[in-house]
Design a protein that fits this description.
The radius of gyration is 24 Å and the shape is elongated. It contains four helices and no strands. The two termini are about 45 Å apart.
Length: about 110
């Protein structure tokens, strides 16, 4: 339906052509599209574990910050929970941090 209005004269319009002037720069720009950079503050490792409870009940392992970071990455990249857990593990590994990532059922 979008082309019905100009259907009788569509063949008279020439399709635009774009030429690449510098192929090496163009290839590098396409490669950089797949580059992923995630910045995580140094304070995250400090506040990753939950503080000890002083009331009755079980102790929580992860802080609210840890759960929020995982859920934020999940929403941004549209990942299922298990893939979110693996993604957080890889980020912690790349940063060189020894963090225990929450299980997908905990997230």
């Amino acid at each position: 339906m979008p082309h019905k209005f100009n259907d009788t004269r569509r063949d008279k319009f020439e399709k635009a052509r774009y030429r690449v002037a510098n192929a090496s720069e163009y290839n590098e720009s396409l490669r950089q599209r797949g580059d992923l950079t995630v910045w995580v503050s140094d304070d995250v490792a400090e506040f990753w574990a939950s503080p000890r409870r002083k009331t009755r009940g079980g102790q929580t392992r992860y802080s609210d910050l840890a759960i929020e970071i995982c859920l934020t990455l999940r929403v941004v990249f549209r990942l299922p929970l298990r893939q979110t857990q693996g993604f957080m593990r890889s980020i912690a590994k790349m940063m060189g941090l020894d963090l225990v990532v929450p299980d997908y059922s905990t997230i």
